[in-house]
Amino acid sequence: MKKVMAWMLILSGAAVAQVSFVSAADAVRPSLVSIVTDKVGPVGATDSSGPGLVQTQALGSGFVIDTLGHILTCNHVVAHFEGVAVTFSDGKTYDGTDVVVVGVDPVTDIAVIQVKAKRAFTPAALGNSEELQVGQAVMAMGSPFGLEGTATAGIVSALSRWGQAKSSGPDFQDFIQTDALVNPGNSGGPLVDVQGRVVGVCSFIRTTRTGPTGIGFATPSNLAKSVADQLIKNGRVIRGLLGISTQAITEGIKQALGLRSRDGVLVSAVDPGQPGAAAGILPGDAILTLDGKLIPDARWFQSEVAGRAPATSVKLALLRRGARKTVTAVLESWPSVRTGPTQAPPPGTWLGLVVRNLTGADRDHTGLDSGIEVEAVEPGGVAARAGVHVGDVIPEINLAPVSSRVDFEQIEKAMAGSKRPLLLRVFRGHEVFYTTVEP
Predict the structure, then answer these.
(1) Which domain holds residue 304?
(2) Beta strand 125-126 pairing with 197-208
(3) How far apart are CA 284 and CA 246, in angstroms?
(4) Rounded-to-10 torsion of CA 410, 415, 416, 422
(5) Looking at 31, 61, 76, 203, which residue is catalytic?
(6) What CATH number is associated with residue 194?
(7) 80 given a catalytic annotation
(8) Same domain, residue pair 178 and 147
(9) Which of 94, 105, 228, 240 is most buried by a 10 A CB count?
């Protein structure tokens, strides 16, 4: 009898979940859109006349966020577009001058476009991503492989995932991990709870050499909404800049510095001429508080500083060689993230990368004495999957300096036939990170 009751409870729970997903899908569907972008780029020799151009299409998804026709999607869906077409769930398509890109933010991989048409726009309801819990049921909606209006169900597998290599950048990561299937074309689509509220924006899926893994990642709705509000208001996201690089305080660092806890961040680099340097911050300093608030981790510190307006003063309590010190820094503004054309390299290009030497202007802009800049990245190639994209500067490969394209070509020859991953050091704006590329 107990077994029968247990099975009845299980079946009853499954039925409730099914009904919830049906109503959730119905609630979101009117706001759901499919996005197609046209992109033009060079290919290898098409005939005896030499290189030519090819037009390709990229697929993505999005959802309406207000009655004015603003649509939230991913930056990598619409970046470097030649044309954008938006199709609603009722089958109506808008393109050309009816669709405008309001703003993009490569740092969080969020973008806002707007359909300028006389129609009734039904916005999706946004949920509070801070209330998400691991194990909670969610549904990914979008147009995977162009299949419009697709819904896949799963759970929240983990929260606050970061350090993920992805083509749209490593910055400000705080991803929701889910096992609801996210495939090409889902990017920009909503991650929805059983109440029909959008709690995330589907961004990318973890892949390996053998293909997708079924592990998807979404940007939390609270972060996406904050970015979208700024894009609609300003056309860009304005962030405070301190000009330092920080890292988490490990147990070993805590003991070496004689700290009482692992709260705070360790300064690993200070950009000359930036606010941190002007305030007297040095590499090796442990910053313990920001405006009197204890710093729980490096991500919190980064987000808090970036969330302050330029010209704002921040007070930092730090520990330097056992002595406590307080400094005040006046924040500047993050520079715009540089982007370039998205043409695909010729077939067979090593690592799927086209690089060029740095110019004098590049050195002034980046503060680097040497390195190579990425001019083109093969979509879906090994470098793209490792998080490398146009505009990145690579000063090191396998911990060895790379000062020119000749150095890059020599490394290619030396690595011919090797399957060993390469360790690339990447500079992007004011962010520095390492990533591995598997040839």
Answers:
(1) 240-333
(2) parallel
(3) 10
(4) -120
(5) 76
(6) 2.40.10.10
(7) no
(8) yes
(9) 228
Tens of pLDDT, residue by residue over 233-291, are: 888 888 888 888 888 888 888 787 777 888 888 888 888 888 999 999 998 888 999 99
Q: Has 389 been annotated as catalytic?
A: no
Query: Are 23 and 34 part of one and the same domain?
Result: no
Asked whether residue 140 falls in the same domain as residue 212, the answer is yes
Closest by Cα among 284, 304, 285 to 294: 304
Rounded to whole angstroms, the Cα distance separating 352 from 357 reads: 17
pTM for the whole structure = 0.65
| Same domain assignment for residues 152 and 18 | yes
Candidates 109, 171, 179, 285; catalytic one: 109
pLDDT digits (tens, 9 = 90+) for 163-210: 655 544 435 667 889 988 888 888 899 999 999 999 999 988 776 555
Domain boundary residue, one of 304, 333, 362: 333
From the candidates 34, 61, 157, 187, give the one annotated as an active-site residue.
187
Q: Which of 181, 201, 234 is the last residue of a domain?
A: 234
Integer angstrom CA distances of residue 335 from 81, 172, 206: 22, 15, 29
Residue 187 is among the residues annotated as catalytic for this protein: yes
